[in-house]
Predict the 3D structure of the following.
Amino acid sequence: QQPVQSPQAVILREGEDAVINCSSSKALYSVHWYRQKHGEAPVFLMILLKGGEQKGHEKISASFNEKKQQSSLYLTASQLSYSGTYFCGTERGGNTPLVFGKGTRLSVIA
Amino acid sequence: GAVVSQHPSWVICKSGTSVKIECRSLDFQATTMFWYRQFPKQSLMLMATSNEGSKATYEQGVEKDKFLINHASLTLSTLTVTSAHPEDSSFYICSARDGGRLEAFFGQGTRLTVV
């Protein structure tokens, strides 16, 4: 079952913040976040395992609400390099294939 | 981090010919690899799960006789698109996990254009 991402697209000015949401109708084992630039393969950002887990790296962080089967990716003080399409990938068990949402296209402008 | 290498990066072939795409895990062994296909501006759609030493598991709607997968070793999986047609033109990406790690790593992807 494909997770649902929102919004589909967002345009930001440098320095602004954004939130990308990912939800599933099925119970989740983990949520993975990736960023993909045009014509390139997805690049791993982070994985969240436990209900209520939050983690981050520099100005990108994420949370995972296991009960609600939702995850959110937070981008603060966005930079031009943040532009790309963000995908959440979900799995229902360990070492099972990731099922990806349709993606959120993020454009950061100067 | 773990490295997954995919080859070729792009290929243009004539309709009716077959194309082989290789996916290698360079610094780890992967008993399982995953093949995805991505059409322009769309999501990555899982095609099949490649299992070392056994038959691949295909997702519903993916023709196993058209997309042949071979996972002959712990570091190599191949996807062969047989009798390619223009509608097979797409971005094909493989993914693998290092057994002791949770994140999945992707190859660079192969852009297939069938003319």
In short: Chain B touches chain A through 23 residues (CB under 8 Å). The first strand of chain B starts at residue 4 and ends at 7.
